[in-house]
Queue: 4 jobs
Job 1
Amino acid sequence: MGMKRVVVVGGGPAGAATAKALADKGCDVQLFEAYPHPDKIHKNAPKAYVIALGQRGQDGLQRSTGIDPLQIPNSIVSTHMVRHPKNNVRKHDKTPSLIIPRKVLAAQVLDAAKAAGVQINFEYRLMDIKFDQQIAIFEGHGGVVTKHVPYDLLVGADGSKSKVRSLLNQNVNEFKVMRTEEDSMEYQVAVIPPPFPFSGMPETSVHAWNDKKYNSICLAFPLANNGGLLFAIVYPEGKLSEFKEKHRIDGTGYDDPLFHLMPDLTDVVKEEFVKQLEAGEPANGGTCVWCNSLGSPKHGVALVGDSGHGMWPSLGQGANCALESAAVFSETVGDIVAGKVTLAGKSWGEVVVEEFNKRRHADALAAVDLTYGGIGARKSRGRNNAPLSYKAQVVGMMLLNKLTLGIVPKPALIRLMMGQPVPYSTARKWNFIYEKLVCLGAVLMITVALVLYKF
Ligand SMILES: Cc1cc2nc3c(=O)[nH]c(=O)nc-3n(C[C@H](O)[C@H](O)[C@H](O)COP(=O)(O)OP(=O)(O)OC[C@H]3O[C@@H](n4cnc5c(N)ncnc54)[C@H](O)[C@@H]3O)c2cc1C
């Protein structure tokens, strides 16, 4: 096999990890990132934002790049999830995850990619793709330069608003975006410096408050190196602007999140919080994207990460799923390079995309479904609360799990939410079956009750 030319569009977690993995496998890789530096990535996201990487994301990073996630600087292993219900009784779960600033994760993997021989081009934005000639066209430094780059394989890792995906959708018949759904939430963050405001709590815990009034959620993540806590408040679109307006009129605008929902906070913390909320602007939530394929085999174009399976942040799966996709992609290329998958007269790029799609598409679709319709989404994304059938199925399975001393596993959806790497398609399938069984059970019980009542 001659040296294959790979173009990666996007320097986020998925793009950087894929680029490093493919360079390690002997490909000639060029990566193009629209922003000038990892610090500047994500126009809409606050600079400080952190990612909670569960076991799935950590495994994905290690499998694709060989990087040990626990060695990444400025990251912290959170030991507990502390939920603060309304009466302020706190509940601890042990759901350890790695809290990493997004810019640190991207910068670390980009550095490793560079060391592996990837040519990294910052401030280059993809403008067009000539699919028939396999040439990608980039504009550099705000339009000062244009580059035409030929490729054997193009990896679109340019996030949930992917240009690669939209070009495929416009120009390639066999590729279709089946559906997109914008999240109806917005969020703002504030970094509160030490001292740690919750006495008696582990300082490495993640905190969560559920605001039933607005179906919204507030979170606090620990920051490494005694960096304090990163708070994120998530509300239905328009609510944060309402809070701001009210704050300017009578100073009570932030009472709902800061005084009613999080009464534990001290006055000093609240004051700092309000200052930062007033100085910043709300950012949008995510987009769910369902595609009929993770790229176009015929044109040697693959979609890896949010570009192929954008999802709402309802279950905290985005980066976890993106890194797992990067791992599946790199293992697919590894198998082809090792001759475990034959080309059978097709081009190398075609076989890579075809095989990747075979291995990953069902799981990717299931992941999007879960974040769109799962309990987390219904509860915390401005939709109605989870319907009774969802609650019943989960409670029923949890009871069964307790009664059988763990022989019957916890529901797959719950295991997924606890950060375990249960396959998305398994969680989706069981979620669906539970739902049907519970509905069937309810219909049977009502029928029996009616029959008994009549006779
Ligand atoms: C506030 C917030 C909190 C989150 N928390 C979590 C969490 O706790 N856990 C979790 O798993 N996920 C979380 N996510 C989701 C996670 O950040 C994303 O799912 C993840 O970053 C996806 O990685 P990606 O590489 O596919 O895409 P992205 O990270 O979006 O990277 C895409 C890259 O492509 C570049 N790009 C875009 N267009 C072009 C173009 N035309 N040309 C060149 N480059 C381009 C962008 O600049 C960007 O750098 C969170 C997201 C947000 C916004």
Job 2
Amino acid sequence: MNYFNNEAEREAVERAKKLALEVFRPLRAKYDEKEEFCPEAVEAMAAQKLFGLWLPKEYGGEGLGVNALALVLEELSKVCMGLALPAGTSALGGMPMFFWATPEQRAKWLPDLASGKKLWTFALSEAQAGSDATSIKTTAVKEGDYYILNGSKHYISTGEAADFYTVAVSTNPSRGARGISLIVVEKGTPGFTFGKKERKMGLRTNPTYDLIFRDCKVPASNLLGGEGKGLFIVQETFDYSRPGIAAQALGLAQGAMSEAVKYLKIRKQFDQPVISFQSIGHELAELTAKVEAGRALVFKLTSLMDKDFLAASQNALKNNTTVHDELKNLKGPRWTKYSAMAKLFCSDTAMQVADRCINLCGGIAYTRDFPLEKFARDAKVTQIYEGTNHIQKNEIMASIIKES
Ligand SMILES: Cc1cc2nc3c(=O)[nH]c(=O)nc-3n(C[C@H](O)[C@H](O)[C@H](O)COP(=O)(O)OP(=O)(O)OC[C@H]3O[C@@H](n4cnc5c(N)ncnc54)[C@H](O)[C@@H]3O)c2cc1C
């Protein structure tokens, strides 16, 4: 089923499809083996204008919103979720900035983000602060026109390859969660270095690094939205970004299934193609139905979100305000429950699809000559990052209680 709201979205998905098949496909096994960042993938996505899909045209974007972003992440992830991830992390690092940036900050940062010239990523997690983001220890102390950052971040996607990092810091440890703020740190700022690179089960085509800040002097003008607003900004961002993780998971699931179906049509046992065994076909039917149910949830959600998202983006430009202020003025719904449901359902579906497709194909799927083992390794992280699925269930549960 198609979930395009306009011709521009359809065209963006066509560009993504061609790129994934022509550029990602020949590279994915090599980079999975090397466990390195792939600059060719970023150049290709930038050339196809995929970084700025969701951003206003006034900043060099395509003005399409979050549905287009999710559709394209889905399409790219059918071939390799990790090679597509810089488009996802740039959106995740860029969204808190886009929502809360002043007009001056937007003018300074958005054009290079939209063109893909500069990559962004988001740094919230720390060694002791995973699900509990309120326990972050990285501090930012104001000294004149600067904040001095000390501390470290853990498991940061796109790692050392990003140019800008939206970093959660404590500007007032005595206030706990209310003392958390977000600040943009540019690579190359003295005192900002990289630590351990993770050796991972999957998502090996996107590097994951620790970030280290030692007396790192960041201009105070890089703060987003004022001191103490950090956790609120993070929650607002996740409401809009988690459907993107769900879309990655759905793309991965479809990619795994199409590899499996191709093989099952040619593999013969007992003198017949394996796909003709009813038990195999029934399993594929069940998985296909689940993926389509996930797609209906995600793209209905992103299409609804776009109503406010696109209006707020334009109003902020017109009124010289922040996108967050304009979203507030529109008084639209909070999407927390639905975003959490989308991520929960689609990441569990992806894991189930990848696992079952290995069962369906048999021994070949357990080898590295066949892409299914990589799909299964990659699928796992969709249940973990941007909040584990326990945390998604907590969000859904909290909404149910609040609404009842
Ligand atoms: C490959 C990869 C890339 C990542 N990229 C980024 C990134 O770019 N930026 C970033 O900031 N972070 C990133 N992360 C971090 C990721 O968001 C965290 O791993 C995740 O939030 C979980 O935190 P944790 O690993 O510390 O697990 P923990 O929080 O220690 O959780 C351990 C277990 O306890 C459960 N649990 C914890 N609290 C609760 C609760 N209240 N109720 C029920 N169960 C609970 C969890 O679900 C889990 O099962 C990445 C992680 C990985 C693996």
Job 3
Amino acid sequence: MKPENRTFIISGGVSGLGLATARDLHSAGAYVSLLDINANVGATIVRELGERARFFETDVSDTKSIEAAIKGTVKWVEETGKAIGGVVAGAGVGTPGLIIDKKNEPLSLSSLDFVLSINLRGTIDLIRQTLPYITTNKPSSPDGERGVIIMISSSAAFDGQMGQIAYAASKGAIASLTLPLARDLSKYGIRAVTIAPSLFESNMTKMLGPKVKLSLEKVMEFPKRAGQPEEFARLVRECVENEMLNGTVLRLDGAMRMPSKL
Ligand SMILES: NC(=O)c1ccc[n+]([C@@H]2O[C@H](COP(=O)([O-])OP(=O)(O)OC[C@H]3O[C@@H](n4cnc5c(N)ncnc54)[C@H](O)[C@@H]3O)[C@@H](O)[C@H]2O)c1
């Protein structure tokens, strides 16, 4: 699908990988609907992008909040006439926590629920609520393509480190649901693709601190550096444009396999 003159809903769209994706799709002529909990930055990004961008303050762990953002997007789509071409579900958190800590305290359920409700439930809920507006699209290709769903997993889905129980569970689930999602949606001509990045520059990885970041870069094969958000966005663009990409998880990781601990 060509992104031009289509609307893409991007959660986590005002920072890091989501923002780079928004900028790239926007530069290709797409309309971008940015959903994020961070309202201050949202207004600035929309001002920067100008036309063809809207921001909806959204908490993806709150189903009503997603509903309102989709309603707002659909209203905008009615004005522009640019159908929803897809969703990029980028909102995510990486809150760490050992299953049992040094004080012999087990991982709290509130911390587990926090990560799962954003990374897993929030991703599925966003997709679930957007789909009725994609299944009804006029096909955009001779094959009958109507849309594309792009999700973000992580290296942690395959080689999660110590302290990544909740995060790895959420990202492993995203990887696992990619194929059944593609299968459910194939009759509508909607594809589902997941990207599993290793270490990429973003606000999330800024919080790791320079020492941890350096030790992660050391275990990369080639190139020995964190990925740039623009390199991630380039793969998203390919996922949007290449109809043969479907039901798969693409590792974008410089051959990095994360060690148990740093
Ligand atoms: N950067 C990496 O190295 C890396 C590696 C693997 C996977 N990922 C995944 O990529 C995605 C994007 O992460 P990033 O690195 O760009 O981080 P980031 O912190 O720069 O961006 C994440 C965005 O999600 C938003 N967000 C958080 N909770 C939200 C909520 N409840 N509702 C709506 N928005 C919410 C944040 O405000 C932020 O704008 C995440 O799912 C992350 O797990 C990142």
Job 4
Amino acid sequence: MSRRGELDAIVVGAGPVGAALAAALARDGFEVALVEARTPKPWHAGDEVDPRVVALAPDARDLLDDLGVWPSIAASRAGAYRHMHVWDATAPGELHFDAAERGEAALGWIVENRLIQHALWNALVPDREDREAAVHGRSFHPSSGTVRVHCPNEVVEVENGEDAVVATLDDGTRLRARLLVAAEGAESALRGRLGIAFEGRDYGQRAVVAHVATERAHESTAWQRFLPGGPLAFLPLADGRCSIVWSLPDAEAARVLAQGDAAFRAELGCAFDFRLGAITAATPRLAFPLRLRLAERYLAGRCVLIGDAAHVVHPLAGQGVNLGFRDVACLRRVLREARERDNDPGAAHVLRRYERERRSENALAARSFDLIERVFGSSSAPSAGLRAAGLALASRVAPLRRVLADAAAGRR
Ligand SMILES: Cc1cc2nc3c(=O)[nH]c(=O)nc-3n(C[C@H](O)[C@H](O)[C@H](O)COP(=O)(O)OP(=O)(O)OC[C@H]3O[C@@H](n4cnc5c(N)ncnc54)[C@H](O)[C@@H]3O)c2cc1C
């Protein structure tokens, strides 16, 4: 469908979201260029589990399945969780979700970011030698369409014209397409270059992550305890350990990062109320700053934002990449429909449909997580009352529990 020498889309950033979009568009027969600044590190089964993991919701799994990459992820290292258990350190009440109640095998899967990216990269660049070498502008045909991979490369200039967008790369290559998608993550340089501002706040928290072994089995349960300083999650890994995400005020995070191993394990066990007994081993810790960021628009001319470039949310609900995959599914549908109607995929009225649908849903999700963070992160008496009432209500009222579980699973 592209005009001579012109691509349908340029996707900038091959993280989980950008790589999934490039694979989806190629599968649908579009001609795509994918520009990634860093050659993704290969994933090997013998490697230690990467410290960055995500909880994938069922609709994200469905997308990866449709792209043909889920079987290799599931066969490699995906920890299914069948239960979710949430409670508060200072208010009574507990909330429990069960996959069986929903007639499903799992509520979600804990997967390493790097494994998702690796599986998608394998689909996009099928040859191992090509993957390991830097790929400058080589074309691959993962399905009916074409993906031209530019890696390691960055976009240094964008001409956002009326008929087409032209991106100039750092090696001088000029790519011309109907549409450019910025998927470069939270620090998106293109977002600024396109003049798109964002609103939000710094949580003044960092998420400390590590993998830990516990005295008792994790029971395929995603556990979350709300503490006055921030939530603490224990996510079940396929190898029987848990991946922890411990949101702490900056100074507390710095203190915890500097602790010796035994002191850290003791403090972590205590913070988790020893639900799984003592913490018997822990990997080195890493920390990520936590921020809320919502782009004021997703659209500038023929360019759109997607994934963390458009929205960064608190990890307490484990929804960041799931929202990004919902962006992929929506943009893919909108572009397919445009083609069926013989419309230009980069036309403003086409891209506005994507923006309208995803911006409101992402903003609602982000503000809901923000509200939960404020209510559960406060030690004031009214907040404690609200927490207790909220947990009691949600745990007793089955339809409300179902609504919450559906929202987390990406099923409305
Ligand atoms: C502690 C923590 C826990 C989390 N847990 C969960 C969870 O359980 N569930 C969940 O859904 N989400 C979770 N998230 C969020 C999730 O990690 C992000 O939403 C997700 O990684 C965003 O994917 P992305 O592809 O949009 O961006 P990224 O993963 O940031 O990828 C961006 C890509 O763009 C490339 N890039 C950057 N700049 C350029 C450039 N100028 N040119 C070319 N390429 C560029 C980068 O190299 C990278 O490959 C968590 C986040 C944190 C911090």
